[in-house]
Task: structure prediction
Amino acid sequence: MERPVNHGRVVALTPGRVRIRLHRPHRQMIPQVKTFLESKRGIGQVITNPLTGSVLVRFDFRRLSCDDVLALCQDVGVVVSNVLEAEEEPLTEVIKGRATDGIIGAFNDLDRRLSRIIGQEVDLRMLVPLLLGALGVRQLAVNGLGSTSGYLLLLLAANSALRVHRERRRLKVQAPLQLTAPSTA
Result:
């Protein structure tokens, strides 16, 4: 007997975190999705809200990609469409961080793939701000101080550095504490 197909869509995506919204007729699958995902390696936390149809999945972006999480949802019978498409962004959106999120997400994916290949943890995310900063300085040196593109690259470099630093701090805070028994002297 074939399982019924249930549908939802990705409504938010950041490295290590994806929010899926199930359509109303398919929200009865939320408990099964939660149980199934929580049993999988690389999934950190699954938070659900049956009233809104929201399924928030926090995962180890070094082991899994968003596509891997969506494939796990499909394994339980929930087909999720990823409707987050790249759009033309005005300058204000670039400054707010949507562009840097995409760049950092690409580096996170590359980190995960390289970590699998070489068997050690790799963190290439700090290259993003360094490269953007170097490009910005180069643009200013070549085109002069009136170069808007140089300043924009420096702004993106600073924004990326702050986001990488915040993400590292957040991951350290979320890491499980290693409890050791008190030593008796």
